[in-house]
Design goal:
Layout lengths: L28 H5 L2 H17 L7 H6 L2 H12 L10 H14 L8 H10 L3 H22 L8 H12 L27 H16 L3 H7 L22
Helix pairs in contact: 4-6, 5-8, 6-9, 7-8, 7-9, 8-9
Length: 241
């Protein structure tokens, strides 16, 4: 749908680091059947997608992507025929599902919402609280703007809200070090903004999607064999940051 592409802020635009082709291990059927393939690809994912997500070094999803065994366990739970949410309540899950489709169209079919819940179910109290705080911030903004929960908004309203959130200011301004000068961080105190909360949720959803089979195929997997480099983005309309 026309509005969705504008809300894939993680993605590859002209000049974005992910637009440069990255090397991936070329796998064969034996290695994939043995489970080696996913471990290797997740390491490539850390170097590729992870490097393209601002602040990802400290994000909980990076920790899980660095642990293939944990990632596989969460993915297996998500695929279970009798799956039910372990951490999120029904309202929260519906909100996450709506966010998945708006931020990464197709991620709901890849069961990204289930993956996120499975990870949160075994995550730390701190990480759980961070996720719920971010979810609450989006919900609060939805109530402020439209007087109803995010999950009840029309697609256009959801896109409007998320586009505004993605274009907002970060709590900690970006800073650039110039070689030959002293390293001085910004004097502005760190604060958490709606943009920060949006980015936090986005990183969860992007990480979940790119740990799925559909996400891996988008990065270059054809099932049993992986391209030696990432293909350029070919989504209609491109993506924005």
């Amino acid at each position: 749908m026309a509005g969705r592409a504008n809300v894939r802020p993680y993605a590859r635009r002209r000049g974005h680091p992910m637009q440069k082709k990255r090397r991936l291990p070329v796998l064969n059927e034996t290695s994939e059947a043995a489970g080696i393939g996913r471990r290797q690809v997740l390491q490539g994912l850390l170097a590729g997608v992870g490097a393209a997500i601002p602040g990802t070094a400290a994000h909980p999803m990076r920790h899980y992507l660095a642990s293939p065994a944990t990632t596989q366990a969460a993915a297996a739970k998500a695929r279970a025929a009798d799956w039910s949410a372990e951490f999120l309540d029904a309202h929260q899950l519906a909100t996450v599902q709506a966010l998945c489709e708006r931020i990464v169209p197709g991620s709901l079919a890849a069961q990204s919402d289930r993956f996120v819940d499975s990870v949160l179910a075994v995550d730390s109290k701190e990480h759980r609280q961070g996720f719920l705080s971010a979810l609450g911030a989006i919900e609060g903004e939805s109530m402020r703007r439209f007087g109803k929960p995010f999950k009840s908004l029309s697609e256009g309203e959801q896109v409007e809200l998320l586009t505004a959130a993605a274009g907002g200011e970060r709590g900690q301004p970006d800073w650039i070090w110039t070689p030959g000068t002293a390293v001085q961080r910004p004097e502005h105190p760190a604060r958490t903004t709606l943009r920060d909360h949006f980015d936090h949720l986005k990183d969860w959803i992007v990480g979940a999607y790119y740990s799925s089979e559909a996400g891996l195929k988008e990065l270059g997997s054809t099932g049993q064999v992986f391209f030696a480099s990432f293909p350029d983005c070919d989504h209609e309309g491109g993506h924005s940051d």
